[in-house]
Amino acid sequence: MECGRDGVVPQHEHQAPLKCAAEDYAIPPSPTLSSEEFLEFKRKATTIVEEYFSTDDVAATANELRDLRVPCYHYYFVKKLVSVAMDRHDREKEMAAVLLSSLYGDVVDRPQLYKGFCKLTESCDDLSVDTPDAVDILAVFVARAIVDDMLPPAFLARQGACLPGGCKGAEVLRRAEKSYLSVPHHGEIVLQRWGGSKRITVEEAKAKISDILEEYLAAGDRAEALRCIRDLKIPFFHHDVVKRALVLAVERGGAAEGHILDLLKEASEEGVINESQITKGFDRLIDSIDDLVLDVPNARCLLRSVIHKASSEGWLCASCLKLLPPEPKKASEVDDAAVQEFKAKAVSFVKEYFLTGDIMEVVSRLEAENYSCCPSFNAIFVKKLVNAAMDRKSREKEMASVLLSSLCMPPEHVVAGFHLLIDAAEDAALDNPAIVEDLTMFFARSVVDEVIAPSDLEAMEEDASGVKAEGSAGMLALRNARALLGAKLSAERILRCWGGGGSGKAGWELDEVKDKIGRLLQEYDCGGDTREACRCIKDLGLPFFHHEVVKKALVTIIEKRGKDERLWGLLSECYGRGLITPNQMTKGFDRVADCVDDLALDVPDAGKQLGCCVERAKKEGWLDASFSMARPGQPPVANGVCS
């Protein structure tokens, strides 16, 4: 209910700003309005939403909302628009996302939109009563708002801290982060989740914008260029026009810069591109200036000049822009004294870690010493850690691998550290005759632990081949690591090479691990607690082997003819928490597909049951749409139909 029994606006609609919201996005307090005025606003907002879904007229909807002249209650419009769309088809969901992006900054300001999404997450439990899949739908809306730069990524953590741990709103935030924003190519996936804009796709829009700008620079017809920009009918995406125009101005300079500035000035004065979109376009270029510098070395200086000219002409508010990031120091410019000091501290960190096993202490100290995440410092730490471990016993080598996987360093920093190890391998071999074997296992283990990708290992070998001899220790280690990773069941052997199981403790045999997983799932299926089951899976310390959890759960579901919702719910919870990664989920389904013929001996319709599970997993977002159960040399398996 939105209103009290006596017609008084409920207290939660007038609450003070939440303390957990960031200052820039602080939730504004609602001004005092009579209950009649507020109820009238709600009725009109509901009518506007319904009319928009009927007419699909963004401009008319924006004007109607603006004419209500109550911007302090725009958060309710955001909540109403999304909650109505959630109960409709994908067309309306996409329309709602497009409308929010169009209204943002021009009609609905940032704090109001932020507050609207806060209200949505708080009321998700109520929304789920009428919309069973409300959690997933709202998670997509949240992810879409972040991809469209309407909500800051920090919204997930800030709002999560304001919600009770077990509520559906908290689950929405977890799913938005784990299932949508953490996957590769998440921007394209989120934008196309409901079929994409029916007007034009993102890639088509970018191509058309580039064509318009190129034709304008060739012909010089500003009126035609502005007409073409209007005809795109994507006002929420005009920031891309600004960004691409600025890139051309910086890259070509001279007369081209003047023409571009004249176009943007006239677009601003005629209202073709609003102030919010212009600011957003400049901010996007500021964010990517380091990449532009690679092609145009003086891009920073040129962009400062463009900002100054635009500001002096009055169509850009320079104070509203982000600050240009400082020029990064080159590796050669890092102070030698600072490097030597960091090396000494890195050695002490490693020694203390081997004594205490306290990973969090190492992480906090490393962050304190390398607060700017300098790649060269991270690379030095990786080298010192591995070198110290290679001089010690298997226990320390296992601990070093566990620490590497826990640091969450950028993969390129770890690769840089491995290059340092390769460069020094010949000298290290004088003190450690087993250097090749040790490096082989560290390289292979980093791939198994997903610290670096297999392609990183290939790139390392390619880079090293240009400066290292064929038979050098570093080259041998790289080749051996790639060969080891290509062997069957390599991950399990690599994880046990130093007696560990990925947790720094004595490892288990493979059969013992499988038995533990089987018993864990059996106990949960008999009435166990979901949270406890997730904790037990995590405590196994075998993230690389979570595909076995998926496989065993699927086999049980198939054997019970798809009637085991508890195990499916456990998989959903594990995936939502990030406990089972998309890679491990896909691998688990792959393994079941590989053995479906054997499974069919006990369950004749196993193929159909698996097909049902695959389709359901695709709908849940666990599997990519391209996933197939077909195997070479086997007849195609018919997809099941979920009842």
TrEMBL record:
SUPFAM superfamilies: ARM repeat. Residues 40-161, 204-326, 341-462, 512-633 form the MI domain. Gene3D superfamilies: 1.25.40.180. Keywords: Cytoplasm, Nucleus, Repeat, Translation regulation. GO terms for biological process: regulation of translation. It is found in: Cytoplasm. GO terms for cellular component: cytoplasm. InterPro entries: ARM-type_fold (IPR016024), Initiation_fac_eIF4g_MI (IPR003891), PDCD4 (IPR039778). Belongs to the PDCD4 family. This is MI domain-containing protein.
